[in-house]
Specification:
Length: 332
């Protein structure tokens, strides 16, 4: 679970409990670890988020917690593993999904529910966790990468739920549900990262992470990224990775895919074409300019305004190349 807080299912308060989940009767359900696996190429990252936790008690428990996700991402799948069993979730309307979840609880079946409460915040409920059992929840995510002006891709993923401004009391109907507290001590649970960068690496340029110490290893035309610490990192900030890709010429990347057999549109192929701008420091051939400058010399421009306007015109003249043209028109 990528979160710093949790809440009880039927509790009137949302007390922060650090790296623990809380059951409906207030008992702590410890979060063991979180793992991020990401594969990035052509402006898109495909991510699998694993949340591993356990029920150390002698009876089944149900828990609820907030799950931070990137606002520019889409959840494409959800599943959870209990022992050797793996149950795959289905996308459905909110009301229908909640009814199915409640019915499964009444029948005593292990069940889970993910709901989107905000563009970057999901609420996940997992019910009827068997006693002394470890559970791994998996969420598959497709996320757009951010393009940086220096010619690099940036991947940013949240690992904690931060307090949100809710305005005055009563302005937000579900403010109590989304309220979280700031942990005053380091959280016990940690996260691990395995990332593959498949974009063509630039010679002499390496990926970097301004958020965490990382190791980057080139292997067969790709770069593998992982946290430098073998014990993981605390769940207290976004994880950020940047890697330069801009070449002297415009870059093209085509990702083709086809739905699995038996899925809708299985007989159709899809492609994602990404066009990468050239490097900003590329020495391109100058384009001749034809400039027309209107200079107001009326009485209202007297003094400092006219002096500043003359400086601007002078700077434009100094910037002209041998093939540029300038037409200056004075009016008053």
């Amino acid at each position: 679970m990528m979160t710093a807080t949790a809440r009880a299912m039927d509790s009137s308060t949302n007390e922060s409990c650090g790296g623990h989940l809380v059951a409906s009767d207030g008992r702590a359900l410890p979060l063991k670890e979180s793992r991020l696996r990401a594969d990035a190429r052509g402006g898109v990252a495909r991510i699998t988020l694993e949340q591993r936790f356990a029920n150390p008690h002698a009876d089944p428990l149900a828990v609820t917690y907030l799950l931070p996700l990137p606002a520019d991402a889409a959840v494409s799948g959800f599943a959870f593993r209990i022992g050797q069993r793996r149950v795959v979730g289905e996308v459905d309307k909110r009301e229908t999904a909640r009814e199915r979840y409640q019915q499964a609880l009444l029948e005593g079946r292990a069940t889970a529910l993910v709901e989107q409460d905000r563009s970057s915040l999901f609420m996940q409920e997992i019910g009827n966790i068997p006693p002394h059992t470890e559970v791994v929840a998996e969420i598959s995510i497709d996320q757009r990468l951010a393009w940086l002006s220096e010619g690099a891709w940036e991947w940013r993923f949240p690992t904690a739920v931060a307090p949100r401004y809710q305005g005055e009391s009563g302005h937000v109907d579900d403010a109590a549900k989304l309220q979280v507290e700031v942990a005053e001590r380091p959280l016990g649970a940690r996260f691990f990262l395995e990332m593959t960068l498949r974009d063509a690496a630039l010679e002499g340029r390496r990926p970097e992470s301004p958020s965490h110490p990382m190791r980057f290893t080139a292997e067969g035309g790709r770069v593998l990224a992982c946290l430098s610490s073998e014990t993981g990192a605390p769940l207290d900030r976004d994880v950020v990775v940047r890697w330069p890709v801009a070449q002297p010429a415009v870059g093209l990347c085509l990702e083709a895919s086809r739905p699995a057999h038996g899925k809708p549109h299985a007989g159709t192929a899809f492609g994602l074409l990404t066009i990468v701008p050239p490097s900003p420091d590329r020495q391109s051939r100058p384009v001749p300019r034809d400039l027309i400058v209107l200079l107001d010399t009326s009485g209202s421009m007297g003094g400092e305004p006219l002096s500043q306007a003359k400086k601007i015109v002078s700077a434009l003249v100094d910037s002209l190349g041998p093939k540029d043209q300038l037409e200056l028109i004075e009016f008053s």
